[in-house]
From TrEMBL:
PANTHER family per the UniProt record, alphabetical: BIFUNCTIONAL UDP-N-ACETYLGLUCOSAMINE 2-EPIMERASE_N-ACETYLMANNOSAMINE KINASE, ROK (REPRESSOR, ORF, KINASE) FAMILY
A Pfam family: ROK
The family this protein is said to belong to: Belongs to the ROK (NagC/XylR) family.
Name of the protein in question: ROK family protein
Origin: domain of life: Bacteria
Length: 411
């Protein structure tokens, strides 16, 4: 070995050592970039609590895996030095995300950062056989994947039902003609494998997944204890994110908020056997009915209810119906605030439009009816992501990669 080779060899050993030390930081580093919390290498260094050299080695490894790009930046980092920008790779792997709801289904390809790369048109036909519907949405997603030429890292499915753990069965697909206990996870895994995709496949409740997406990329960013309540195309669901992770309970059935009673006297009959539940008192059908409108077949119930609020809110009957729903929604939220003490509430689906229509009325009801709400310390915000359940389905599909980038992408 000559005198010029020795320093280079020593440098190579040093780089390998830094990378070995940083291997355990690959997952946390990727999640920081994925959620936008580490836009530069300087921030990544600070958030991980490592040296600049180790952070650089970690970023380089994630770039070599095709997950992020490291770009020259002009922002000053540590000691006034320009800090490199870290961005998710717009040409990197994607996951297949799918959603089924009472008025149809949709498939999409979603990259890191929660970015929807491609999506199919929404289909408005839902077969009574879950295997048929799930097979169709997987085929649609697989076609998108073939056209994109991108590598697939996983697959996720959102369904409008509580999904029992560990079996993965849909226990209450009340607004679908599916049998109770349909093995949706098993069906999804089989259809994903049958489409030639050798990737892990995951299934979850649509509102749970929407909350996860909003926490990482939308209105819930920065929240520690996030409560999400939302209407789907039918019914009402809820979710709780604690310290960045979904709280699903001991068997996946937590936060079935749709069955809180908010109108015990003369309330509508609910599918659960009770009356006056949030599920049937504050969903799109409830608004249309209270406003004296007969739902038509041309659009989904959610689209019709949204249209009513946006174009006919000045109508006395429509405004009265909206106020009735706002008061009942506020009553339900107040009860949840008393029990859960969240630091933020986000509303999706029709509830987002109700908040927009009369934000002060809703906030006043929650403050008046809840112990903690009276302090005014519980912000109530609208969800901000389009297709947040699809993005959430992608989040659970991305999770193995976020946990162990090297291991997940080496298989």
């Amino acid at each position: 070995m000559n005198g010029k080779e020795a320093p280079r060899a020593a440098g190579q050993v040093s780089t390998r050592t830094r990378l070995e030390r940083g291997r355990g930081a690959l997952g946390p580093a990727l999640e920081l970039v994925h959620t936008g919390r580490a836009p530069t290498r300087a921030v990544l260094t600070s958030e991980l609590g490592v040296t600049r050299a180790t952070a650089g080695a970690v970023a380089a490894e994630l770039e070599a895996l095709g997950l992020i790009h490291v770009e020259p930046g002009s922002a000053a980092g540590a000691q006034g030095r320009p800090s490199h920008r870290l961005v998710v790779a717009d040409d990197g792997p994607v996951v297949l995300a799918a959603q089924v709801h009472s008025d149809g289904y949709r498939a999409a390809l979603v990259g890191l950062g929660g970015r929807i790369v491609a999506t199919t048109p929404g289909c408005e036909i839902v077969d009574a056989d879950p295997a048929q519907v799930i097979g169709s949405v997987v085929e649609a997603g697989a076609a998108l994947l073939r056209d994109s030429g991108r590598r697939c890292a996983g697959a996720g499915l959102a369904v409008p039902s509580a999904v029992a753990e560990p079996e993965g069965n849909a226990l209450n697909p009340l607004h679908l003609a599916w049998p109770i206990g349909a093995p949706v996870r098993e069906i999804f895994e089989q259809r994903v494998s049958g489409a030639g995709l050798d990737v892990p496949a995951f299934t979850g409740n649509d509102v749970n997944l929407a909350a996860l997406a909003e926490h990482r990329h939308g209105a819930g960013r920065g929240s520690r204890d996030l409560l999400c309540v939302a209407t789907g195309h039918r019914g009402v669901g809820g979710a709780l994110v604690l310290d960045g992770r979904l709280h699903t309970g001991s068997s996946g059935l937590a936060l079935e908020v749709g069955h809180l009673t908010v109108n015990p006297e003369g309330g509508r009959a609910c599918h659960c056997g009770s009356r006056g539940c949030l599920d049937v008192e504050t969903d799109p059908l409830a608004l249309l009915t209270a406003a004296g409108r007969t739902p038509g077949p041309e659009e989904s119930l959610l689209a019709q209810a949204r249209g009513l609020l946006s174009t006919e809110y000045a109508d006395r009957l429509v405004r009265g119906a909206a106020e009735e729903l706002i008061d009942r929604l506020g009553l339900g939220l107040a009860g949840l605030v008393n029990i859960l003490n969240p630091d933020r509430i986000i509303l999706g689906g029709l509830h987002r439009e109700l908040l927009t229509a009369d934000p002060e009325r809703l906030r006043a009801v929650v403050a008046d009816r809840s112990l903690w709400g009276r302090s005014g310390s519980v912000p109530i915000l609208a969800c901000t992501l389009d297709h947040n359940s699809l993005v959430g389905a992608a989040e659970v599909a991305w999770q193995p990669v976020l946990d162990d980038p090297l291991g997940a992408l080496s298989t």
